Amino acid sequence: MEHSLYEKIATQVEKQIHNGIFLPGKKIPSVRKLSKQLNVSVATVLQAYSLLEDRGIIKARPQKGYFVQDHIPPKQSSNSNIVKPIENDGSIHTLLRRLLHASQRPDIVQFAAAIPQSPFLPIRQLQRSVGRLMRLEPEICAAYAFTPGSLSLRRQIAIRMLDTGCQLQPDDITITMGCQNGLMLSLQAIAKAGDTIAIESPTYHGVLQVIEVLQMKAIEIPCDSQHGINLNVLEQTLKQWPIKACIVTPDNQNPTGATLNHIARQHLLTLATKHQFTLIEDDVYGELNYNHRREHALKADDQTNSIIYCSSFSKSIAPGFRVGWIVAGKHQAQIEHLAYIQSLAVPTLTQTAITNFLENGAYDRHLRRTRAAYHDNLIRYQAIISQHFPTGTSTSTPTGGFLLWVTLPSDIDAMALHTQALNIGIGILPGVAFSLTNQYPHHFRINYALTWDTKTQDALKQLGKLACQQVPNGY
User: Is the pLDDT of residue 74 over 60?
Assistant: First the structure.
C-alpha cells in the first residue's frame, strides 16, 4: 500500500532538513510556495506540515510561517516506521480520572465527554416505553435476561446489522454492558497478561484503560483524520513484534473522525489473515454516518469467522442504558461464558425498552434527524474555530459521529488550555489523554453533540480567545 501524497511530501521535506538544506531555527517554504512548487493543493501541504509538527521536526509561528525546530530528532533509520510495545504504568488512568471527573461538572459546557446532549436522544419515546412497561409488566424488574440477552433485542440487532453487510442469526449476538464492556470481554477471550495489542494512535482513551487493567502491552499505530490507521506502519510492525490483536474503529474513529475506505479495509483483512492476529472492530459510531450508504463492516467480509465486532446504543439512543452487543464468531462461546461470570445479565428493563423503540420504526427517523443535526453542528464549529482560533489551527473533517479533533499551532499547550478553560466553565479533552506516549500536546477533542445556542457559541469563541492568548506574539 503506497504512502499518501502528503506523507511523501513530509518525508521529502524532512530529508531536506536532515541533509542541511534547511537549518535549525530557519524558515522553510511557505504553504502556498510549496504548493506551487509541487503542483499540489494548499490543503495537502498543510497536512504534510502538520505531520512534521507531530514528528517534532518543524514548528509554526503565527503570521510568520513554519520553521525548523532548534533541536530536531536524529535522522530515523529505514525501520523508522517500526513502533514498540508500551507497558501502561497506570499514569493514563490517573490522568483520565482527573480530566473526565473535572470535565463533567454540571456547571460547565460539556465539550469534553463523548456524550450527546438530551435533545439529540429519543428521551420522550424511551420515557413512554419504560412507563408503559412498568404499568403493564411490573414483574419485568424481577426477571433476569441471562446472557446472551433478550432474544427479541438480538433479533432486532440482527435486522439492523443487515446495513453493515452482516448476515446474522440472533444466536450470533451477545448483549453486553455497553461497548467498553465488549472490548474488555474481547481481549479477555483471546489474550492474556503480557500480550501485545495493536491500537490506533490517537485512540479512544477507554482502550488504554482496558489494556492497563488486563496488564497487556499496547503498540501504537499512527492514525490520521483523513485515512485512518496507517496500514504501512502496521504491516512493518507485524514483521517485528508478535501482535495478538488489533483494535480498530473503521467508521468515524474516536477522536480523529477517520473512516477507512474499501481498499484499506480489504488490506487490513489481508494482514489479519496473513499474520494471524484477531481484529476487534469497534463500530460504536457506525450508524451515525452522514452519507446515505456506509461501508460494509469488517465483520461482513470475515472469511475465517474470527473477527470480533463490538457496538452499542450508547451514542445513538441512551448512554445511561448501557446496552451494547458483540458478534464474535468462533470466540462467541468464550465471551458468553466471561459475560455470564462477570454480570449474569444486562438489565431486562433497558433491553426491552430499546427493543420496543427499534420495533416501531422510530429509530430510523431518529437517526435521520440526528445525523443532519450533527452535520450542521460540525459546519458551525469549524466556522467558529476558523474565525476565532489562532492562525495555523486545523480540524478533522469527520463524515459521521459527533467528535472533532483540533490541532493547534505547535507552541500552544493543550493541557494548559484545558486547565484555563475549566476555570471559566468550559470542558475539553486534551490530546495527551489519547496516547500512552504523550504524542499530542497541542491537540484536543471536542464534542459537537451540543445544542447550538448562544451559550455554546460563546464558549467556543472564549476557547479560541484563550488559545490565542498562548501565542507568543499575540493573534
Answer: no
Euclidean distance between CA atoms 335 and 149, whole angstroms: 13
Judging by beta carbons within 10 Å of its beta carbon (0-12, 13-18, 19+), is residue 285 exposed, middle or buried?
A: buried
CA distance 427 to 459: 10
Do the Cβ atoms of 296 and 162 come closer than 8 Å? no
Residue 17 reports pLDDT greater than 90: no
Question: 324-327 and 308-312: which strand pairing?
Answer: antiparallel
Q: What is the structure's pLDDT at 233? A: 92
| Residue partners of 75: CB distance under 8 A and separation at least 6 | 18
Of 373, 357, 225, 173, which Cα lies nearest the Cα of 288?
373
Dist CA 166 CA 281 (whole Å): 13
pLDDT reported for residue 80: 45
List pLDDT tens digits, range 120-175: 999 999 998 888 888 888 778 777 788 899 999 999 999 999 999 999 999 999 99
Say whether pLDDT at 1 is over 60: no
